[in-house]
Design goal:
Elements (H helix, E strand, L loop, with lengths): L6 E2 L6 H5 L23 E2 L3 H6 L3 E4 L4 E8 L3 E6 L5 E4 L8 E3 L4
Parallel strand pairs: 1-2
Antiparallel strand pairs: 3-4, 3-7, 4-5, 5-6
């Protein structure tokens, strides 16, 4: 099943919230501007494989270590450099190709 039109339930996985620099997208913003869970008909439920990737550490092609902080089915996985606040979005295909699990978790 394609998930390209699905929206992550939690704002910490949402590409638009992550890229919004503190401004939540319309799907994760309550009327009082606080974060809320998306519960609409396109709410994304992560697969077992996605859950096995998120929360784990990966060594990248640039020899840096990243923590996978979330997954947005519209855009891919979100990785954060463990030594900086830098976040990067990567394709699902990058897992085990250019981002390799460190197994330190």
């Amino acid at each position: 099943m394609m998930h390209r039109n699905r929206i992550p339930k939690h704002h910490t996985w949402c590409s638009y919230c992550i890229e919004g620099n503190g401004v939540l997208c319309e799907h994760h913003r309550a009327p009082d501007d606080s974060p809320c869970e998306f519960t609409g008909p396109y709410a994304y439920e992560p697969s077992a494989w996605v859950l096995s990737v998120v929360g784990k550490h990966y060594r990248a092609w640039d020899d840096k270590t990243y923590l996978c902080i979330g997954y947005d089915p519209r855009h891919g996985f979100w990785m954060q450099d463990i030594n900086s606040p830098k976040k990067t979005n990567i394709s699902e295909r990058a897992i085990d190709r250019t981002f390799h699990r460190t197994y330190d978790d």
